[in-house]
Amino acid sequence: MIILKHGVSTFGIRPELLLALVVVDAVYRKFNHDCVVTSLSDGQHSSNSLHYKGLAFDTRTRQLTASQKTELRDMSASALGKDYDVVLESDHLHVEFDPKR
Question: What is the pTM of this model?
């Protein structure tokens, strides 16, 4: 299940992000965990962050083991393909739609 952390804003998110959320949620389900979204178009990020363009989200990873986090990143990146960047940060998974042309 996709759960939004209290205060997360969905304002301005793009359809490409909705697809990515569904895909990443399916991977979380393989580990029997909910996909908790901690940031969408809100939060504090670098000034050129794709979060502010509705093209990035972060999910909570503290409920996963180190190996599960790596597997989450790898499986999500594989399922989403080359137009998405999937980055495992120290305390969350960052996903962004950033097609390279």
Answer: 0.92
